[in-house]
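User: Working on a comparison across species. This one is Thioredoxin from Pontibacter indicus. Can you predict its structure so I can line it up against the others?
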Amino acid sequence: MAKKSFAELIKSPGMPVLVDFYADWCGPCKTMNPVVEQLAKDFSGKLKVIKINVDKNQAAAQQYRVQGVPTFMLFKNGQIIWKQAGAVPGHQLSQIIQQNI
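Assistant: Here's the predicted structure for Thioredoxin from Pontibacter indicus:
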């Protein structure tokens, strides 16, 4: 299977896409991992979750002006509808997703 481009991944029709820009060396990113995994389970079938390692995908990070990690973005039909840098409490992330599905 061909590897999809970032642009293809975020254009999930009818389903919002949560993108977690992270780095392996980032402490807050590691703290957010279980939160993001839980959200992926909670919203299974309603939300697509993509994790992007900024060290391996610098083009995507630059294109979306990711200046710190973790940075979370919610896309709908390929458009950014929400963005926040830094760790986000799980309930807050869940609320934002809930409002957009």
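For your comparison, note: The longest strand covers residues 79-85.

User: Helpful, thanks.
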